[in-house]
Amino acid sequence: MLPKKFYAIAVGRKPGIYDNWPLAHAQVQGFPKASFKGFATRAEAAQWLTEPPAAYSHGKRAPLAVHASTVTAPIPGEVTIYTDGGARFNPGPGGYGVVQLYNGERKEFSGGFRLTTNNRMELMGCLVALRALTHRDKKVTLYSDSSYVVNGIARGWARNWRKKGWIKSDKQPALNADLWGELLDLVDGLDVTFRWVKGHAGHPMNERCDELAVAESGRQGLPVDEGYEER
Asked: Who's near 215: CB < 8 A, 6+ residues apart?
């Protein structure tokens, strides 16, 4: 049997394919309901990822699985949003990027902070996108490559954390409560479906969001992420 050299992570802190176990392990260790598997070749790992976590709609599970190669084009009359975020060195300088599409119109948003984390920037991308919605009465589909964000909303984790005073089931404090709280409030007023999309897999809108996020993280004079630095 060939040794396992590639690790496919479908559910974890940063889904994708990794070529070393310590880095892959860091994405799944302690992550609730992590889903991952080792393979001898990258092609086998990529094939396994063609059945990633299902798409989730606010409050219920949707029946259709979605990944980078099958994401549909924007639907007329609906708002389609792509987001991404990350921090160099995690924690470190970070940024987020957003692409919003509606009936042929396209808007882009981005920003960054001098010291933050991957997860905070993933959340911030979603927050900025939903704050900026003009057509708030329309159906919204938001694509993120962060299972932390998608599962946190769709599986009710964040809502449960808030009910328990931002304490998780393991009795540890839930991180990023400031961002989760605002995101929950925004979601409650919208018809929004969160869908997971595999990152760094060639999807043009996801790649554009990544470009925006990386560019922001490298800017000089970034502001303070008060929710991170002052906690």
From this structure: 95, 110
Q: Which helix (H) or strand (E) holds 160?
A: helix 157-163
Is residue 184 within a helix (H) or strand (E), and if so which, with residue range?
Answer: helix 177-188
Active site residues: 84-85, 122, 145, 200, 210
Question: Using an 8 Å Cβ cutoff, are 140 and 133 in contact?
Answer: yes
Q: For residues 88 and 16, what is the distance between their CA atoms, to the nearest angstrom?
A: 17
**CA–CA distance from 99 to each of 96, 114, 181 (Å)?**
11, 22, 23
Residues 72-122: tens digit of each pLDDT: 567 889 999 999 999 999 999 999 999 999 998 999 999 999 999 999 999
Residue 101 exposure: Cα atoms within 13 Å on the Cβ side: 17
